[in-house]
């Protein structure tokens, strides 16, 4: 599973004015001063500090977590591009509307695109994984280039590129959604080397996939099924 943030705080939510001295007494690390300096740097650079609710939502796709749980307060109603290429955080409602529009225009089920975005970035357009995947649909640089995405942090561009890429995988695997999801996560090459082309073949060779890919596919399919979407 791609890690959606470069920093995993243990506090539930950081206030606007961060007290490094108070935080040091609660940090579970041996070198509290070093961690505090790192956190201060991240905050100064605009790194978003996520809440424990969002961590849980990312780990297990918990349907109980929703945007109304205070998340909207941390998002601006704009997507103005910053000097670093990232964008001012976009309101969750706006992101969901963008997902629906993009999915319809490209011809992919909007529920599927929404759950891929949830699993990849938890709807944060500025996420960068440790592997270098970026934005709402966690596009690697090579994939972004192939999909003609110029700014991976722009929600519209990222959604367009990621949804088009997902569509190519669905077409490649004749609409076998589980295989397309596995390829989106682990790469078509790895899926191909296992001789997987259908959902039935994927299920037969499930244990040969990386564990994180197994969890990724299961999480998205479970969310879709819980919402009444079947494939």
Structure, explained:
The protein has a domain of 152 residues: Orthogonal Bundle (Lysozyme), CATH 1.10.530.10. The longest helix is centred in the last third of the chain and has 18 residues. With 231 residues, the chain is mainly alpha-helical. The two termini are 23 Å apart. It has eleven helices and no strands. α5 packs across α11. Helices cover 50% and strands 0% of the residues.
Key descriptive features of the protein:
231 residues; mainly alpha; Lysozyme; disordered N terminus
Mind sketching the topology for me?
Elements lengths: L19 H5 L7 H13 L7 H9 L31 H15 L3 H12 L19 H6 L8 H18 L4 H10 L1 H6 L5 H6 L6 H16 L5
Helix pairs in contact: 4-5, 4-7, 5-11, 7-8, 8-11
The main pleated sheet reads as: none
Class from secondary-structure proportions: mainly alpha
Helix count, per DSSP?
Answer: 11
Order of helices and strands: HHHHHHHHHHH
- Helix share, percent: 40-55%
And the CATH topology of the domain at 75-226?
Lysozyme
Corresponding CATH architecture of the domain at 75-226 = Orthogonal Bundle
- Indicate the radius of gyration in whole angstroms: 18 Å
The CATH class designation of the domain at 75-226 is Mainly Alpha
